[in-house]
Amino acid sequence: MCDNVVPTLAYQLALAFPSVKSEIIRTIIDDPALLSRLKSRKDQIQHLIIKHLWRIQSRSPVTFIIDALDESCSPCDAVRVAHLLAEAIRAYKDPLNAHIILASRPNLRINEAPWKVFRDIQQISLQDYDGETNRDIRHFLMHEFQRVVQTRKLSLGDVPQWPSPRQMDNLADKVGNSFLCASIAMKYISHPRKHPVSRLDAFLSSPDATADAYADLDYTYQDIIRNPDNRALIRHLINIINLAQPLPRSQLLQFFPSDYSESLDLTLEEFSSILIVSPDQPTIPIQPYHSSLFEFFANPVRCRPHYIDSTEIHKGLGHQCFIILHKLKANLCDLSDHTTMAIEDSRFWHKRDTVLYHAICLPSLGTPSIFRKLQ
Hints:
Oligomer: single chain
Distance between the termini: 37 Å
Number of strands: 4
Radius of gyration: 25 Å
């Protein structure tokens, strides 16, 4: 979230310049609220960053690099954070030699009103069309294919070269100028329990979708979910990515119905190329490999025919929340009631925000039967 951006920048500043680390720590000790929402971002920037920059001005210029800021919050909020940081640097009593580099998708239009304070902004598009990006992506794909052949010890029989030059051309065309698409495609092809040669053939044989601003990414997602037998698994996938906060597999099994185990495992295996799944680290939450997956399923045009209205999604998730509340008989919502039982199972405490988020959606969804069942 954007609320974490300024504290993260201060943390990185302290790591990069030990000379200001103790001062930043002292500032936080004196006013712990600087790390919370109680303080405005303007106050955070001033006290956690700007007041300490002067100590390192004798060195090279300080550069703040913020990657994918627009994926952690709305584009408007992302630009506002960048604007406040730039404004604070300019307004300091002594000129500060600092630069800000923002890496984002094209929809973060920071040079348009009302953010024209960025008078000296320089935009650099990485979606170039001179072939440089395409060459880099091809190099990445070839490196990944070599890794797959070596680590999987593939027996290619009489095949002289895999992938063939034609397959390589087709795959490069499919992923376009997007490293994200290339990465997802290779995750799909190199699935540890599938045969890479067959997966590449299946990926290349899928039809192209209608071109739009997200064409490359949409092609990739559509290729992965296009199996008609996956409809039930796709619904599970949509439920997982719409949770208020990501949960590891063990807690997903506690949240969803008791017969969910087998289908959950199938979902995680089938869509491991577009989810962060760590079988060797079961405590790591399962979440989208990239935030664009949520945007894809939220758009009825882009994800057809798999679109499900958000009201229907949260109705189902909210129902599960109330079932959990009923079973626990514990005060997950921090209600003020002297008769409320203390929470004895700490495993469920982290679910409070998830329960509240989906339960709050229910009053407007017309679900009185849920409340009657719990009475």
